[in-house]
Amino acid sequence: MNVWEARALAHHHFDQLWQGGEAGVAGMSRRAAYRWLAGIMQLTDDEAHIRLFDVAQCERVVEESKRYVAGVLERQLAAKRAYEKDVGRHIARRRSQGKRRRSAA
Q: What pLDDT, in 10s, does the model give residues 6-17?
């Protein structure tokens, strides 16, 4: 992979942190995403631009971006499952209350 292809791939994955769509779930602003990038790459804000990266740095951006997005999606799935479990308990409780009312009447 040449540096241009590596940068395009890095941008594809990095941009998912702050742009809309499936991976926009990260909920970062563009500015926050670039601060995150600077932090993981141990660079200054001025140095943290994919257009300045070599192939190895781009590969790291891809890995770290995928890991971050996967973590966000995992947390969202866990929250959804917890919500569905709570709703299921609520429905079961309402059903049992209804049965008790009918049998008492």
A: 999 999 999 988
